[in-house]
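quick one before i forget lol
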Amino acid sequence: MAEDARKERSPGIKLLLASLIGLALIIPLMLVYALVWDRQSQSQTAQSAINAGWGGPQVIAGPLVVVPYMTTQVQNEEVNGKTISRTVEVEKLLYISPEENRVTTSVVPQERRKSIYRSVLYEAQVKGAARFALPADLPRFGVTPEALLWDRAELRMGASDARGLTRGGTLVANGQPLAVQPGKGPGATGGQGFFAFLPWRGEGVLAVDYAFGLRGSRSLSLVPRGGQTRWDVSSNWTSPSFGGAFLPEKPDVSDKGFRARYTVDKLALGQAPVSSEDTGPPALDEAAGEMPYRDASAATTAATAETISGQARAVTVGLVEPVNLYSKVDRSVKYGFLFIGFTFLAFLLFDIVGGARVAAAEYLLTGAGLVLFFVMLLAFSEVIGFTAAYLVASAAIIGLLSAYSAAVLKSWKRGRFIGAMLVGLYALLFVLLNLEAWSLLIGSVLLFVALAGVMYATRKVDWSSVGRREAAAV
């Protein structure tokens, strides 16, 4: 009986017991992590349902002049086991990029809700002016002017999700309005958009003015092409993200919105002014909420007579949510084991040094309360927002565990200490969630301070004799 009491009171046994219970609590923490992922997946499904009748992330490209031309091509075929070459005349498309393109875009955001979920939508008004000219050295690009079929020339404008083209569009060439038709957008938008037959035969300069309204969600991208592209974009959305192949020149972001200007020169694009191949959709960053409407393989089949080569480069403005609650809850769960560790460590010190007796069930119930905090944080965040949910969940758990610790440790003074420690931990976690760049530094300093505190508190503990003295006293 004395031997059992010695083992029960041994500091090593108590440490091992607290560690095993702490490790066991990793399982419910992982379940909470899975719950966060599931709720985020449900949120994305709800957002997709909201966006379904509006429009997804948009990529705009153009204008682009496309002219069919005739050329000869050598084809090889096998006849009776012999390879025979013959020259045939085929039709190809010549893509003429603008020498200069000036685009102005005004973005008006709005939020739509479905149940407790929301999605950021926008309406954009796109206006622009472009200038085209046929290169004087066109034959050096492998095309002679006489081979061009100008009676079938087209002026193309692209938007990657045609569902957003609900406001119509206009194309004006040298002051003459053109009849706009759906489809045949540039390859960068997967063939989505609109076009018009172009009454131009390559003489002189072609001045093109265009305008259209566009609905979309989350992000808006522009594919620069040709000589020089300048894009001025503005909105009253206060939390933009700037990404893509090029960054804006000194963007102005304030509590009233943002303004940004992009200037992209032909040397940065590395594209010829004319080409017999179009470019495919750009590779956008899905992690930032920028998703191409169609992939390159889909764009390749957009038109049988067209050739797609490589990916286009794009500049992107994203309308991000000021607080991504799921990412913050996800990050907070990753700190859950530190909460359990610090609380169990305090209980263990009160047990070994202070003489309080803490049973395994009491460790387990305290750990369950700490895990419950993250479930409450997730549940309340979806309804009242992250900051308010954090205050509600942390206040509830701190109050519960402070009262329970006073009963377990047989002292309100010790209960208040546990409550003060939890207040400090939850306050520190909130700071870490908002200062992501400093989280590693702050966390490492905190662990150092905690280790130093434990060393100081246990500096006089005789780990090998405490249990034997207590057993002898019994």
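fyi The radius of gyration is 33 Å.
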